[in-house]
């Protein structure tokens, strides 16, 4: 476990239940100091230049944490275990990044591959990658609509149905054999 992961784990354990910001900042500083001290006793060093801090809240603002007379950098978002964490706690950025990754490979869906193979690609590869970790997301209606739009975009590409063809979404889902459910 890296020092950063230990820091996130310790901070989430001890700071999450505290409601007052002044108390939370004080506790966070104390926890970070103790973590730095214990790590040093065990022969581990924290790279202060690479360590970042982020407060996740509806009203995000910076937190001042000093280690070795150097202030840790406050960030608005960072990548952790393959997901993008933002300071507002929303997953909109993560969803849009995953959808954008497929826009680069849209030729797979409209290629000369067999229709059944393209359907299997959508079910097995695209949904698995696009929705990886989705069970932990708190979806807002906007995010859910974005995912549903992406789903329909994929099925329309697979079936080679243009948006100017005026085919209803229900018909597209029926044509793609009831694939409106996400795979388990």
Word description of this protein:
With 184 residues, the chain is mainly α. It folds into two domains: 84 residues, no CATH class; 84 residues, no CATH class. The protein has seven helices and six strands. The strands form three sheets. Strands 1-4 form a two-stranded parallel sheet. Strands 2-3 form a two-stranded antiparallel ribbon. The protein has a two-stranded antiparallel sheet with strand order 5-6. Helix 1 packs antiparallel against helix 2 and helix 5 runs antiparallel to helix 6. The chain is elongated, with a radius of gyration of 22 Å.
Question: What is the topology?
Answer:
Layout (H helix, E strand, L loop, with lengths): L2 H13 L5 H21 L10 E2 L12 E2 L2 E2 L1 E2 L2 E4 L2 E4 L5 H12 L3 H4 L4 H16 L10 H19 L9 H7 L9
Parallel strand pairs: 1-4
Antiparallel strand pairs: 2-3, 5-6
């Amino acid at each position: 476990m890296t020092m950063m992961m230990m820091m996130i784990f310790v901070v989430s354990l001890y700071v999450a239940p505290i409601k007052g910001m002044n108390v939370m900042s004080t506790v966070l500083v104390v926890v970070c100091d103790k973590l730095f001290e214990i790590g040093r006793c065990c022969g581990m060093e924290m790279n202060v230049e690479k360590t970042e801090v982020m407060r996740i809240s509806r009203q995000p603002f910076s937190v001042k944490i000093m280690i070795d007379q150097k202030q840790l950098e406050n960030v608005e978002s960072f990548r952790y275990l393959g997901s993008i964490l933002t300071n507002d706690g929303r997953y909109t950025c993560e969803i849009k990044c995953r959808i954008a990754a497929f826009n680069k490979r849209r030729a797979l869906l409209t290629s000369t591959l067999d229709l059944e193979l393209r359907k299997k690609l959508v079910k097995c590869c695209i949904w698995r990658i696009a929705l990886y970790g989705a069970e932990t997301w708190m979806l807002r209606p906007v995010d859910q609509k974005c995912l549903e739009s992406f789903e329909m975009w994929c099925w329309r590409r697979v079936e080679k149905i243009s948006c100017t063809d005026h085919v209803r979404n229900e018909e597209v889902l029926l044509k793609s054999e009831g694939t409106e459910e996400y795979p388990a």
